[in-house]
Amino acid sequence: MNLFEMIRQGEISFFSAFIVIEMVVVSIICFMLAKDKQRNLVVASVLGIIPIVNVLICFYYIGVSKKIMLANK
């Protein structure tokens, strides 16, 4: 069955479906931001899945600066 049909027929509540979709989307965004800013990808992905915390973590990865790797002389 289609996800939208299941929501419309009441088999799945709208809020439950929204939370799952939001978790996946924010986790992917956190992963891409962490990759761009050279941070730990596993931590970003795992924290991006936890509801409520994931939005705060997303804001953290938006605001944090890139890691600068200095070459040893």
How would you sum up this structure, described in words?
The longest helix is centred in the middle third of the chain and has 23 residues, at 14-36. α3 packs antiparallel against α4. The chain has one domain (3-63). By secondary structure, it is mostly helical. 68% of the residues lie in helices and 0% in strands. It has four helices and no strands. The chain has helices at residues 3-9, 14-36, 41-49, 53-63.
**Integer-rounded radius of gyration:** 17 Å
Number of helices: 4
Tell me the major beta sheet: none
How many domains would you count in the coordinates? 1
Q: What would the principal axes of the Cα set say about the shape?
A: elongated
Features:
73 residues; mainly alpha
Give the helices and strands, then pairings:
Layout: H1 3-9, H2 14-36, H3 41-49, H4 53-63
Q: How would you briefly describe this protein structure?
A:
68% of the residues lie in helices and 0% in strands. It is mainly α and 73 residues long. It has one domain.
